[in-house]
Every structure is written in C-alpha cells, then in structure tokens.
Amino acid sequence: MTDRIAEPWGARTPYAAGQRWPDRVDTELSDGLGADEVDWTQSAAVLHSNGDGIDIAAHDGRIVGVRGRSVDRVNHGRVDPKDLFGWQANNSPDRLTVPLVRDRGRLVESDWDTAMNRIVSTTQALLRDIGPSAIGFYTSGQLLLEEYYTLAVIAHAGLGTNHIDGNTRLCTATAEWALKETFGCDGQPGSYTDVDHADVIALYGHNVAETQTVLWSRMLDRLAGADPPQLICVDPRETAVAKAATVHLAPVPGTNLALMNGLLHEVIANDWVDHDYVAAHTVGYDELAGCVAPYPPERVARICDVPAGQLRRAAEILGHAQRLLSTVLQGFYQSHQATAAAVQVNNLNLIRGMLGRPGAGILQMNGQPTAQNTRECGANGDLPAFRNWQNDEHVAELARLWNVDPAKIPHYSEHTHAMQMLRFAEQGSLRMLWVSATNPAVSLPELRRIRQILGQSRLFLVVQDIFRTETAELADVVLPAAAWGEKTGTFTNADRTVHLSDKAVDPPGQARPDLDIFCDYAQRMDFCDRDGAPLISWKDPESAFAAWQRCSAGRPCDYTGLSYEKLRGGSGIQWPCDAEHPDGTERLYADGAFFSKPDYCESYGKDLVTGAAIGPTEYRAANTDGKAVLRAAGYTPPHELPGAGELWLTTGRTVYQFHTRTKTGRAPQLNDAAPQVWVELSAADAQRCGIGDGDMAEIRSARGSVYARARVGGIRDGVAFLPFHYGYWDAADGAGHHRAANELTITDWDPVSKQPLFKTSVARIRKRAATDPSGW
Ligand SMILES: Nc1nc2c(c(=O)[nH]1)N[C@H]1C(S)=C(S)[C@@H](COP(=O)(O)OP(=O)(O)OC[C@H]3O[C@@H](n4cnc5c(=O)[nH]c(N)nc54)[C@H](O)[C@@H]3O)O[C@H]1N2
Ligand SMILES: Nc1nc2c(c(=O)[nH]1)N[C@H]1C(S)=C(S)[C@@H](COP(=O)(O)OP(=O)(O)OC[C@H]3O[C@@H](n4cnc5c(=O)[nH]c(N)nc54)[C@H](O)[C@@H]3O)O[C@H]1N2
Ligand SMILES: [Mo]
C-alpha cells in the first residue's frame, strides 16, 4: 500500500495519447474493517473542484472510510489524499450539535425554535424599518445545488434583496467572468478527457499537483506514457508542475496580463493563427492584434522579469500545438487585472482554433467542489440558470416560474458582491448578514478589518456551520448543519460533471441539513407567491432538484435530462443534459455555436480595464450573430508595489490542508503532514534578510504582522509565499500569535469579477527569536 501522505499522487498507470486512462481504485478503511463489513453509499469528493466519484463507507452509524469509484469518468477510482483522510472530521467530538444564541455577550446553547425565531424577528424588524437592502447572504462553494437554489429563491424573490453572494467571489468569480466576457455565458468549454488527447497542456497560475491531485495524476500518467504532452507552467514558484514542465515561466506577481499579451504578440507576429476559425467564430480580432502589438518579448521580459528567450520558446510551443488544453486558476484569478489576464487565455485558444474537439479545450477552473452550482443557481447574486439581469425577458421568465411580480426580483443593477456587502456592513446600511459554509474571519483579506466589521453589535450575524469557527465566535446566532455524508444532494465539478451525493449516516445531535434550515426559514417567514401559495414549494432534496430542473430548462446549464435515479450507480454526467443530449455533453461549442446571442446570453460583458458594464445596444451591434468575443486590454502596474527592502507577498495552498482547516486540521494524517504555517523565500532574499532555513520570521504589511518559520528555496527572487490555511493560534503557554496570511493581504479587487487580490500584496520580512516553548 502506498503511503499517500509521502506520495500524494500514488502509483503511475501510464497511457498514450488517445487511450483510455487506466483505472486505479484507492481505498481507505479504518479499524481494520474489510470492504464487505461496511455499508457503501455513493458520493463525490468535496475538498476541491475535481469532482472525483467516491463511495462512503459506514459502520455502526459512523463514517469509517472511502473508496474511489472506478466507473466515474472523472477519477477512474482514484482518491485525493485529503479525501482519503478528511472524512474523519465528520466524527470529530467538537462538531456543532445544538443551535447557539448570544446572551449577555456570550454564546449559549439553545434550541431550534429560539434560534430561528430570533432570525425571523430580526428579519421582520429590518424589513419594516429599513427594507430588504438591510439584509445580506454570504454563502459558499461547498453546499449542494438544492441548497443554493432554495437560498437564491429566498433572496431574489422572497426578500427581494440584491445582497447575495458566495465565497466563490474569492474563488472563481474570475472563472465565471472570463467565460462571460468571451462566450457571453458561464460554463466550462473543456472536459477532463482533453488531458487524454492534448499534445500541449498550459497551466496558468494553477498548481494542479497540490490542488487537484487526481487531475495531476492523469497528467503524470500521460507524461509517463507514449507521446507525452509538453507542459507550460506559469507560476512564480517552483511547484511540482513547474518541475515537470517543458517551459516554466516565473513572472513577477501582478504581471500576468503583460505576459499573456506577450504570448499573443508572438503567436500573431509569427502568424500561428487559425484565420478560418477566427473569421467563422469570433469577433474582435483586429482590436486584439492592435492591443498586443506593443508587447514584443523584450518589453514583456522587462515587465515580468522573465527571460525573453523563454517567452519565445513558450509561444512557439503554444503556436505549434495541435491539441492545446489550457487551464487557469488562482495565480491569475486572485491577481491584479485578473479577468483581463484570464480572458487572454481564452483568446489564445480561440485564435489558434483550439476549442471543442478532443484535446483542444479551455478549463477556467473552479476551486471548490460546488462552486459551479453557486453560480448557476444564482446564490452568487446572478439570476438563476445564467439569466441576464439586464434582459427584461429573462427577469419575466423567472417571475413566471416563481409566480411573483417581476418588480419583486431586484434587477435595477448588478447584485452586490461580497466585498461590497462587507463595506455596507462597515458603513451600517447592511444590518443582518447570514453566513453559510464559509469562514470569512480567516479567508477574507485584511482580517483586522473583517473582525471589526463582523464583531459590531449593530450587525446581526448568523453563522451556519458544522464547527464553531473563528467566524462563529463573532455570531449572534450559530446554526449547526449536517455535513457531507449526512445529507443528500447534487453538485457539479469544474468540467460540468454532475454527481449525486447520498446520505450515508445521520448528522450528530440536532444538526440539520442546510436545505432544511433554509426551508424552515422560508416557512417561518411565510414567503408566498402572487396567489398566496408558498414560494418554496419543495421540502426535500429531490423535489428541490425538480424545481431547479424547471428553472434550468432551455438554458445552457440544462438539467432536465437528469434525475437522482440516473445519477445512481454509474458515473457522473456532464450538463447540458436534456432530451437532445440524454447522456450529457462532453464539450461545449464543439459545433462552433456559442451561448452568446444577444437575446440568450447571460451577460453583455464589461470593459476589461475599468469594469464598466456594456449595454445591450452596444453588445448587439458588436456581436449580432452570437460569436465568441476576443476582448483585449493593456497592462497597468498594480497600485501597491514593493519599495526598497520589501517583497511581493503571495499566498495559496498546500496539498495536505483545505482552506481554514476545519476538516483537514481534524484528520491526524493531514494535520501532522502540515501542522504549522511557514513562509517560502528564495535563497537570495533569505540571505539578504539574514534568515536561515527553519528560522522564525516576522512578515509585516501595512495591515498586520504574522510569524512563520522560513523555508528557503523553491520560489523566485523578490517574492514570499505564505499558505493561507492557518487561523489564530494559541500556544500551550497561552501566548497568541497571528499566523493567518490574511492579516497581511490588501482590501482590493479585480474591477470586472470583484475577486480580491490574495496573490499580490507587499510585505517586509525579518528574523525573530522563537519564543514558543512548543518549538513552533
Ligand atoms: N490541497 C488543497 N487543494 C485545494 C484547495 C485547498 O485548500 N487545498 N482548495 C481548492 C480551492 S477552493 C481552490 S480555489 C483551488 C486553488 O488551486 P490553485 O489555484 O492551484 O492554488 P493556489 O495555491 O491558490 O495558487 C496557485 C498558484 O498560483 C501561484 N501564483 C501566485 N501568484 C501568482 C502570480 O502573480 N501569477 C501566477 N501566474 N501565479 C501566481 C502560486 O505560486 C500557486 O502555486 O484549490 C482547490 N484544491
Ligand atoms: N490569503 C488567501 N486567502 C484566500 C485564498 C488564498 O488563496 N489566499 N483563497 C480564497 C479561496 S479560493 C477560497 S475558496 C476561500 C475559502 O475560504 P472559506 O470558505 O472561508 O474556507 P473553508 O474553511 O472551506 O470554510 C467553509 C466552512 O464551511 C463549513 N462547512 C463545511 N461543510 C459544510 C456544510 O455542509 N454546511 C455548512 N453549513 N457548513 C459547512 C466548514 O466547517 C468551514 O467553516 O478562501 C479564500 N481566501
Ligand atoms: Mo477557492
């Protein structure tokens, strides 16, 4: 048996281009139990966006292990190390089991009636005194489709507030916007099977080796087989992806757009362009060519601090690819000019005609397991099923579906994004915030400010979680939720594969599924349609799914051809899945037809530099026939730049931990593999700061300070890297240290997607004496 902590990707099963990826079934069972001594329940992975099909093992009413599903198209049986061990968190003795309410300053144990009545009476008082804009919802990329849709209907049509968003704002808002800008609509064009066919795979700010280990295993198996693909990696760190790459470009943070414009410049200057594809399927080519003309390799090399020869080499590989698969993630999305840079990846594939056939694809990746559902259900503030808030007919469709007055559904402006909701709470116009399945007191930028905002007494904070998190500590009401494995529902991964996750065990104590909690709130609030019938007419997962199917009918994310029955037993299925595509759809845009027709599209797009919304008239004039839009933008430097003695600070992930560690921190194997925060520095920077490998360092920015042990090497000069997983830490002697990366990060966001810039801030670093007796 492979030690999957030491070898996160497990054993190789090589295969050649065009072959089927071999199966390899990974299993983890505790207590020496045999596979036939436990009950197996079908599910999928929830500690990343890959959507690996897994079965949950249960014994005596507890989860005792997991096993990969070989029939699943996504993983062919493989399981990520976090999923192999992370389920132990479900059984943790410190799960939330009863509602808590704040009494004379302290959180005390309570009951569901008391907790829900406080929420309902606060809602009613705010509606009476201020109106729906006093109330906001901040949800997740980790709930289930049925839960998001219910919450979205409550917000959009029950309360009529425009303040609803998910932590997907921090995660994949840029994926969504890069797709809207180019294709007029969200939805990944590509498929994971493109890995089986590609001759070039380009990974932009995507450390797939640590963040989607099963997808990386697929790439490693291609690299180990005949006709391996060439890899391009764009990352300032020497990740495992960078080490395996044919060309590794390590740009200075905040310069991705300049780098992309440089690559496009070379492809165009050398005429590696598929002019037939461009003419038939795109608009905007001349503007793009004009915009990238001032980005020859020498100039880009200076901006990005990357050798010009390496840029040329990368462009040549991209320019000669026959089957180019491009993936993009947080190195682009959480950076300066995020959407503008991510859109250039779409442009590169489009001008090379690399879309909609095996191996030629784009994956504007998701991060969280259910982020796609947050977006498609409208729990990120958009109108459900990729409807366009600027299109009155789309609003009218929803009003008919929900049987409400169209005026009830806010569509006077774009919805309020999460960072703006926090601002409204800071200023005092937002007075109730309901947080579900996210831990903003660790995951939002500039934590000192976030603690002040969430801790105000004038803000009524509801936190719905499975653990008593840093955020729960600030709440007025804490609602205990059922976790994955304790409830039933569906979710959709980054390549549009829909999985069903069935309930394997009961939730602990009085914890309830998030769907039940939202339905209970709707009932207590008496949300009704025009005829006085309940607005939320469903009560269980399957009827919620049916309601969503009706909402999705005829839209790009059409679920009408799916059912719980169809999702049981075999593999997950990719949407759209309808009467015309009963087995789902492997690749979008295979026929060169897009969702971007003016009457059908989800969005008319925004100006890439300013974020100003494009209006229907302008869009219709530019893209009457619904082609893909090539949008261009010039590079501008970030507004916070390192001065003398300062470094770029970038943040991200390690393979063993998930986010704020509420789950992986409670799984011994994972916790022990990465128990404490560290900071990565180049050898030259370490020497300049007088810091040796293993020394304690203090990292300080204009926002705060953090202590971490130094790891020297593996990163380019001028940049320091901190993993963001670790919240406030109390030493054995009671001496607290800040160690959360977000003590340091800046309150700033991309103008188009509104995604915060976790990858580009500025910090100083110096050596500190280690004082902690536990030896941290
Ligand atoms: N183990 C693990 N896996 C996870 C998660 C987890 O917490 N732990 N979380 C899941 C979620 S929600 C997400 S969103 C994904 C995120 O998955 P990734 O985006 O792959 O992970 P990150 O570590 O955030 O960032 C990726 C890389 O961006 C690089 N980078 C930093 N600054 C820049 C820059 O300016 N330009 C470029 N080109 N690159 C830069 C970093 O060095 C880093 O290696 O992972 C998912 N999978
Ligand atoms: N500096 C820095 N900051 C970052 C990032 C970065 O790269 N750098 N990445 C950003 C990204 S991409 C992301 S996705 C965010 C993640 O940030 P968060 O969303 O804050 O991270 P999690 O720890 O996953 O929080 C999820 C919460 O939901 C709870 N939970 C789990 N399952 C359930 C459930 O079924 N029901 C309920 N009600 N609760 C549940 C968990 O216990 C946990 O408290 O962080 C962002 N912040
Ligand atoms: Mo994420």
TrEMBL record:
Location of the 4Fe-4S Mo/W bis-MGD-type domain: 38-94
GO molecular function annotations of the record: 4 iron, 4 sulfur cluster binding; metal ion binding; molybdopterin cofactor binding; oxidoreductase activity
Entries under InterPro entries matching the protein: Asp_de-COase-like_dom_sf, CT_Nitrate-R-NapA-like, MoPterin_dinucl-bd_dom, Mopterin_OxRdtase, Mopterin_OxRdtase_4Fe-4S_dom, Mopterin_OxRdtase_prok_CS, Prok_molybdopt-oxidoreductase
Recorded superkingdom: Bacteria
Any Pfam family: Molydop_binding
Obligatory cofactor(s): [4Fe-4S] cluster; Mo-bis(molybdopterin guanine dinucleotide)
Keywords: 4Fe-4S, Iron, Iron-sulfur, Metal-binding, Molybdenum, Nitrate assimilation, Oxidoreductase
GO biological process, one term: nitrate assimilation
SUPFAM superfamilies in the cross-refs: ADC-like (SSF50692), Formate dehydrogenase/DMSO reductase, domains 1-3 (SSF53706)
Family statement drawn from the similarity comment of this UniProt entry: Belongs to the prokaryotic molybdopterin-containing oxidoreductase family. NasA/NapA/NarB subfamily.
Name the record gives this protein: Molybdopterin oxidoreductase
